[in-house]
Design a protein that fits this description.
The complex is a heterodimer of chains A (259) and B (302). Chain A is mainly α. Chain A has eleven helices and no strands. Chain B is elongated, with a radius of gyration of 25 Å. Classes of the chains: A mainly alpha (259), B alpha/beta (302).
Chain lengths: 259, 302
């Protein structure tokens, strides 16, 4: 029961935080850009909206920036910001004198970060739908998109992208819990992201824990920028997540000074 | 019955021993002043008591139970404020309390009760980022009181408060102790600040306890004379007379100085000098005040 109470507390804590606003902004950024672009080039819209495969094309366009940039960078920033709330507010000493076990403290915060990530996915999907519907409503002569939305396929891809993000969250969480200085986890995450971009065509790219959303997206488009991984990257992502989570908990529970 | 019992607490940071075997007992229902200069080891001791530092050596028992074995059970009954306030600055006072109310599962009405207790009811939608240090300190006390603890551990809670705030804090703590029976352990580096508040005192310096007892036991030391100074019409003759009486007298800066003596002995000195035909111009008994006792203790002067 104390885990549920701790979850509620963590949820309230981050509700009005910067990370929460950032997730909202990040989720609607790409859809907003798509809406603006389509409104500016309204003449080609009737043909586009009447074409087969409209939803698949929109899905691919929307995920390009998310998979390469927003998901990795958002994961780095949101996890760091949410974890650093205690350091920023000098509140670890408050948290550690609550009648909660160390496991409850560690996993409830991680659970809220994952929930926030899930919220990003939900809002992003809503944003993609709106980016299809709004131009049709505002530009005369543009019909509602042709063909049904491939829900099952999109849901499956959402799930796989979510799994691809897990190592980023777990490793950023581990580092953010260890470091008082906000710049350390941010700097580490940013460098690893840049390094991953440079190493996408490397045959061992699947060893880099921040690479999976990018590999997943580029591989589906048969891009020459990415080497085809030799293993199942979703399994790799799950494995890294487990490894970083367990290592993070061990480091958290054995630290000499708490707060 | 003791609320807190600490025995042989040793703590080292690398080669530096900051606590050299602390023994401390806080009686149940008391207000215990934990005094010592900055860097004496007060905060380290309190952090060890709350599990914020990993214990290296010694024992800590709270409510008669080992802290190591009953951490959660003990923390349910403890409210704490360690050093500077811990507040989420993007949230209001009510929101800060709300997120802790969820953990403690105390009635929601407690939020307004504790805010009223520290006079912060009217802060509305103001985030704690906009609070003064005094308001933050008071909100931290409210947080510590939210779950109606039996024991309150406060580390220098008056830091940053103005004189009026210090008086209000003192009155609040007295009331909590008197009306709710809360045991309070409060640390400070200023004796004057808490001498009118506490019932028991522990004095720590350089990682060792220099005194522990009731406030009245500490005050008893005040009545011992520190020194007696005498000035007469012939100090040379007076020196010989008093030395002949077996007293340890020395001439110093135009007067005679005797070690501390009881009231009867002081009267006997006066009689001896007058009966020998000397005029006594000045007979002064210098007594200890609490501050000088405190300074003696922390400087290790016996």
């Amino acid at each position: 029961m104390s885990f549920v109470h701790s979850l509620q507390s963590e949820w309230l804590k981050q509700r009005k935080s910067l990370a929460s606003w950032m997730v909202l902004l990040g989720a609607f950024f790409t859809p907003a850009v798509i809406i603006v672009a389509r409104l500016l080039h309204g003449e080609g819209l009737p043909a586009l909206y009447a074409a087969d495969g409209f939803w698949t094309l929109l899905w691919r366009n929307s995920w390009e920036s998310a998979a390469i940039f927003f998901l990795p960078m958002g994961g780095i920033l949101a996890t760091t910001l949410m974890t650093q709330l205690e350091y920023k507010n000098n509140a670890w000493k408050l948290v550690h004198v609550l009648p909660l076990s160390l496991a409850t403290l560690y996993f409830s915060k991680l659970a809220i970060i994952l929930l926030t990530l899930a919220r990003f996915f939900l809002l992003f999907n809503v944003g993609i739908y709106l980016s299809a519907v709004i131009p049709a409503l505002l530009v005369s002569g543009v019909p509602y998109p042709k063909g049904p939305i491939p829900f099952t396929r999109f849901l499956g891809e959402n799930l796989l992208f979510f799994v691809d993000c897990l190592p980023i969250v777990a490793l950023q969480y581990l580092i953010s819990l260890r470091s008082r200085n906000f710049l350390v986890p941010i700097g580490f995450g940013f460098l690893l992201w840049v390094g991953t971009l440079a190493a996408l065509s490397w045959r061992w790219n699947f060893l880099i824990p921040y690479a999976y959303t990018m590999i997943d997206y580029l591989r589906a488009g048969n891009s020459s920028k990415v080497a085809t991984p030799l293993v199942d990257i979703h399994l790799m992502a799950g494995g890294y997540f487990l490894l970083f989570t367990v290592a993070g908990y061990w480091l958290f529970s054995t630290q000499k000074e708490k707060g | 019955m003791h609320c807190i019992e600490v025995g042989g607490l040793v703590h080292r940071y690398g080669e530096d021993t900051v606590l050299g075997g602390i023994d401390l007992q806080v009686p149940r229902g008391s207000i215990y002043g934990f005094l010592g200069p900055n860097g004496a080891g007060k905060t380290t001791t309190l952090r060890l008591m709350l599990g914020l530092l990993r214990k290296q050596q010694g024992s800590i028992r709270v409510f008669g139970r080992s802290f190591d074995e009953h951490r959660l059970e003990i923390l349910r009954k403890v409210g704490a404020l360690i050093e500077s306030p811990s507040l989420y600055d993007h949230l209001t006072a009510v929101e800060n309390l709300e997120l802790l109310q969820r953990v403690h599962q105390c009635p929601r009405s407690r939020i307004q009760e504790v805010l009223a207790l520290v006079d912060l009811v009217g802060t509305g939608g103001k985030t704690t980022r906009q609070f003064s240090l005094g308001m933050k300190q008071r909100l931290s006390i409210a947080i510590a009181l939210l779950h109606s603890p039996e024991l309150l551990i406060l580390d220098e809670p008056t830091n940053g408060l103005d004189p009026n705030g210090i008086i209000e804090m003192r009155e609040l703590l007295k009331r909590l102790n008197r009306e709710h029976g809360i045991t309070i352990l409060i640390s400070s580096h200023l004796l004057a600040e808490i001498e009118r508040l506490v019932t028991d005192v522990g004095i720590i310096s350089r990682g060792t306890m220099r005194f522990q007892g009731t406030m009245s036991e500490l005050k008893q030391r005040r009545h011992r004379a520190l020194a007696v100074t005498v000035r007469t019409s012939d100090d040379g003759k007076a020196l010989r007379l008093l030395t002949d009486q077996g007293l340890s007298v020395r001439a110093e800066e135009g007067q005679l100085v005797l070690p501390g003596a009881a009231d009867g002995e002081v009267a006997a000195v006066n009689r001896c000098l007058v009966s020998s035909g000397l005029d006594v111009y000045e007979l002064h008994v210098a007594r200890n005040d609490l501050e000088s006792i405190f300074m003696e203790l922390i400087e290790g002067v016996a």
